């Protein structure tokens, strides 16, 4: 029996609903396989906890978390806590604390899902996001607060080490895919220091991967290419901020934000990696039981792959595709199914296989 210890952090809003659904599906998968089991340990690290106790992560929390095989995360964000506090004190505290520098975001139109984009069937991208520095390095400050001459700075940080490791990761990923194609996203025309380093290191690393075909695109231009020529891209590497924006666009083009998964990887495996749907806590639908749980299911597939459970990962992905193809869909995809309907349907399908 192979057993994996999973730390579960549902967080806020629909994070709680979709992670609950994801646990059910993983349990159904384990039960069916017979030689696989998950030990889930729940952590109540959320905005509610912050409002009650003044902290998201208790003292010693990260240390405790570091002993798990993986982290299954919902979303964080509350109307009662400023977003920069919730994001930095919970999600980024884990990503940066565990050096999860590679954020991987696949985008594909699943069977039965309607995209508003003509030709969307050809979307098959993986966006690789630098997840430890760049625009979100937390480097900046505010002076003369409250006075007319107040100043705020937000200084991006690009280190050669940080840039090299993410490019190398992206090249290796591109190399493992049939098309072996990598697009560098940049803004080195307007930003002439960090972004130029970003480009230079990319072309240096490229010499080690002669079988990967490469191209370079400015971030503004790449948005139009994603919409007008989706078939021309495979793996895309971009900075923390650029990839954050591009991956929401990629999710919307492939049907809904409710479908897209992501992995925050610590490729060295010194620390556990964290897996989460890319959406947030969705105030507008939280508590209604209508959130699309497919993003958290696909996230579970990525977690299984990372845990070395490739057969279980393939089985779950196939079940997700049968589910979307069946037309049983939540409101964001134009259907009327609830989170529970979708979860029950996929669990039943897993049992039948
Ligand atoms: P959001 O992703 O929560 O919602 C955007 C829109 O997409 C909403 O209309 C929502 O109903 C819809 N949507 C998202 N996921 C869905 C799902 N699974 N099924 C159906 N519809 C879905 O983004 P928003 O509104 O910008 O942020 C809300 C809060 O979440 C904020 O506090 C924000 O900071 C936080 N957030 C947290 C993230 C994280 O924990 N990784 C990521 C993005 C936002
Ligand atoms: Mg985002």
SSE layout:
Blueprint (H helix, E strand, L loop, with lengths): L1 E10 L2 H20 L2 E7 L4 H7 L7 H5 L4 E6 L7 H15 L4 E7 L15 E7 L9 E4 L7 E4 L5 H16 L5 E6 L7 H13 L6 E6 H10 L6 E4 L1 H14 L7 E5 L7 E5 L16 H13 L3 H16 L13 H14 L1
Parallel strand pairs: 1-2, 1-3, 3-12, 5-10, 8-9, 8-10
Antiparallel strand pairs: 4-5, 4-11, 6-7, 11-12
The structure holds 1,4-dihydronicotinamide adenine dinucleotide and magnesium ion.
1,4-dihydronicotinamide adenine dinucleotide binds next to α1 and α4.
Q: What does the model show?
A:
This protein is α/β, with parallel strands linked by helices and 353 residues long. The chain has two domains: 195 residues, 3-Layer(aba) Sandwich (Isopropylmalate Dehydrogenase), CATH 3.40.718; 140 residues, Isopropylmalate Dehydrogenase (3-Layer(aba) Sandwich). It contains eleven helices and twelve strands. Strands 2-1-3-12-11-4-5-10-8-9 form a ten-stranded mixed beta sheet, sandwiched between helices. Strands 6-7 form a two-stranded antiparallel ribbon. Strand 11 and strand 12 form a beta hairpin. The radius of gyration is 20 Å and the shape is globular. The two termini are 20 Å apart. Bound molecules: 1,4-dihydronicotinamide adenine dinucleotide (NAI) and magnesium ion.
